[in-house]
Write a structure and sequence with these properties.
By secondary structure, the chain is of the alpha/beta class. It is built from 14 helices and 19 strands. It folds into two domains: 171 residues, Flavin prenyltransferase-like (Rossmann fold, 3-Layer(aba) Sandwich); 237 residues, CoaB-like (Rossmann fold, 3-Layer(aba) Sandwich), CATH 3.40.50.10300. The chain has an eight-stranded mixed beta sheet, sandwiched between helices. The chain is globular. One of its GO terms (cellular component) is phosphopantothenoylcysteine decarboxylase complex.
């Protein structure tokens, strides 16, 4: 069931119907009467293939409000206005949408859209807190251009973001806010190592896994610092500041500067292990002396940023309880399989968690889904056989992100309870 409240962003609900039905969902749109001032019922009926009603007096013989609410596997409300959120918090049932939410026992995901002042108003803050306490997933909105010339938090997330987050929330029975008050530093995308002003050496990373981590961490309540290299065009996640970098040196500088303020550091970027030893100041021209430089490149090794962050924690430059997560994209060979290389990498890098996955044959890079193993090392482990392995089933990059962050939350709680003992 897709609930639509009466805000200007209601037009984006049309895209959301598509997002869900293209994933195989049977969508029933339940607008508020005011939502139909922005988008006609005919549009929602045509897109969803289902009839649209706004009040409990239509189709009384079928007891509509009971049926739609009871039969849904997932209720998403986008956009949710301040008024709708207030009515939900009060437990009102004065139209079909609010009545349906009251009878729904499935996960309910609310995507707000309103002016910043309304979002930050104590009345709305209280109402949002009430809904969250009751187990409703109220997504934080995006920050950006609002209806008028103003800009700030309150903008409706993009339809693709809402659909992904709603699916992730539904799969986990809702999203709570265990990272409230924390700062999570995430690197994403591929590095580009310049050869001359025109050319670079890069890789096929899309940045999708790092952005998925930011999407979920932001909705778990964290303040996210996302340092991104080359990525696909992806919308900015909620509660996230994006800093763009190109080279490994720039990535290292950005990570090293931010890591001391972070409670969690996740290195999802595909970092180049080598860079051209020198960068030509002018374009290397065919037939010129410099052409030789294009035939045989002299390379220099890049620093390992992840190991640097681990070393900084050991030296006390970071908080001792900073949780550090790395990735290992591995292929197996005659010596060992991909998982074994992942176990070795966890110990070599010295981080707390590694998401290891097997790559090659179109797997992982640029694809919407992923699978792998979540590796954690017990305190003082030195033997790869001691590494704890948990299989992460194939799922969207956002579902993988949710698994990784659940592990991060477990580690943080274990740390805190150890302190309390
Ligand atoms: O050694 P490998 O490149 O397989 O390690 C992958 C992990 O290490 C990833 O988390 C990646 O972001 C990080 N890394 C890094 N600095 C490098 C190379 C990789 O932080 N120079």
């Amino acid at each position: 069931m897709l609930g639509v409240a009466g805000g200007i962003a209601a037009y984006k609900a049309c895209h959301l119907v598509r997002e869900f039905s293209e994933h195989g969902a049977d969508v029933t749109v339940v607008p508020t009467p005011n939502a139909l001032k922005f988008v006609g019922a005919a549009t929602f009926e045509a897109l969803s293939g289902n009839p649209v009603a706004t009040d409990v007096f239509t189709g009384v013989d079928e007891v509509r409000h009971v049926r739609v609410g009871q039969e849904s596997d997932l209720v998403v409300i986008a956009p949710a206005t301040a008024d709708l959120i207030a009515r939900l918090a009060a437990g009102r049932a004065d139209d079909l949408l609010t009545a349906s939410v009251l009878v729904a026992t499935c996960p309910v995901v609310v995507a707000p859209a309103m002016h910043t002042e309304m979002w930050l108003n104590p009345a709305t803050r209280d109402n949002v807190a009430t809904l969250r306490r009751r187990g409703i997933t109220v997504l934080d909105p995006a920050s950006g251009r609002l209806t008028g010339p103003d800009s700030g938090p309150g903008r409706l997330l993009e339809p693709a973001q809402i659909a992904e987050l709603a699916r992730t929330a539904a799969a986990r029975g809702g999203l709570s806010r265990p990272l409230e008050g924390t700062t999570v530093l995430i690197s994403a995308g591929g590095t580009r190592e310049g050869l001359d002003p025109v050319r670079y050496l890069g890789n096929r990373s899309s940045g999708r896994q790092g952005f998925a981590l930011a999407e979920v961490a932001g909705q778990l309540g964290a303040r996210v610092e996302l340092v991104a290299g080359a990525t696909d065009a992806l919308p900015t996640p909620a509660n996230t500041t994006v800093t763009r970098i190109e080279s490994t040196a720039e990535l290292k500088a950005a990570v090293d500067e931010r890591a001391p303020r972070a409670d969690v550091v996740i290195m999802a970027a595909a970092v180049s292990d080598f860079r051209p030893a020198s960068v030509a100041g002018a374009k290397m021209k065919k037939g010129s002396e410099a052409e030789a430089g294009l035939e045989t490149l002299q390379m220099a090794e890049n620093p390992d940023i992840l190991r640097g962050v681990v070393a900084a924690r050991e030296s006390g430059a970071l908080g001792g309880d900073t949780v550090i997560v790395g990735f290992a994209a591995e292929t197996g060979d005659e010596d060992a399989d991909a998982l074994e290389y992942g176990r070795r990498k966890l110990l070599k890098k010295g981080c707390d968690v590694i998401l290891c996955n097997e790559v090659g044959q179109g797997r992982a890079f640029g694809t919407p889904d992923n699978a792998g193993w979540l590796l954690t090392a017990p305190e003082g482990a030195t033997d790869p056989a001691d590494v704890t392995v948990r299989e992460v089933p194939r799922g969207s990059k956002q579902e993988i992100a949710a698994e990784i962050l659940a592990e991060v939350v477990r580690i943080r709680h274990a740390d805190n309870s150890a302190l309390q003992d």
